Structure formats: C-alpha cells, structure tokens
C-alpha cells in the first residue's frame, strides 16, 4: 500500500526506499511493438492483435475464429470460449508470455445469460491468484460471435 504526504518531509540527500515493482520499471523500454502471430491471418482492421509495451502485453479482443481462415468456430458459448482463449494464448505466446502471466481480462458477451457457461470454460485456464476480470453484455460482437476476450499480461 502506498501513502503519499501532501508535503514532502524528506531532507535533501535522504535515502528513499522505492518499491521493487516501481524500481524495475526503469529497466524497460517505453516503445510499443506490435505482436505478430505466426500462422494466422492479420487483424481484420487497423489494429494490432497485441502490443508489447515494456514488460506488459495488451491484447486486442480475441474472437473465437479459426486463425487460418478468420471464420467463426462453433455455435455455442462453450466452444466459442475455448476458441477465444486459444487465440488469446497464441497472441501471448507470440510475445513470450502465457495465460499464467495474465493480470486482467475483459470478457464481452452477446448474452449475459451465458455467463455461467462461459465461466465454466474460462476457469479451466486460470489458476490462483486469478486475474482481475470484467465481464459484461454488449449489443453485438463482430461476426455474430457470442464472446470476445482481451487481456493485459506481463512477459
């Protein structure tokens, strides 16, 4: 937990303890790099499948599509959740990461009533401590998909 004083009480030249997480930030680049996924079609618009920024990975939403054809896979939420997570894993792997290093996910559902079924698949892929997650219903997803998943992970 960080606490910040309104007025500094440090004297010039005093030693300051910097939390390890903040100190390690100095070792990382601040340039962004597109993540390219081998053996898959490029993104279907003016965006990257993922961005590597320092030691963080920001993925675009991954649809349940076949990576070779971009065709939607499956008609049910469980099959589509499996496919979306597989595509998410491909992006992470291309950046030198994996699902164990996911910090936060966002799950978009075309029908919130399918949350329990989606969750029954989702929970098989993540271990404690689980990533932070937001999940909500949206009006419509590309290609008529039932689910889309994005994440933030570290390398």
TrEMBL record:
A GO molecular function held by the record: deaminase activity
Top-level taxon: Eukaryota
Record InterPro entries: RidA (IPR006056), RidA_CS (IPR019897), RutC-like_sf (IPR035959), YjgF/YER057c/UK114 (IPR006175)
Listed Gene3D superfamilies: RutC-like
GO cellular component: cytosol
UniProt cross-references to NCBIfam families, sorted A to Z: Rid family detoxifying hydrolase (TIGR00004)
PANTHER family the record matches: 2-IMINOBUTANOATE/2-IMINOPROPANOATE DEAMINASE RIDA (PTHR11803), 2-IMINOBUTANOATE_2-IMINOPROPANOATE DEAMINASE (PTHR11803:SF39)
Annotated family: Belongs to the RutC family.
Protein known as: RutC family protein
Organism the protein comes from: Smittium mucronatum
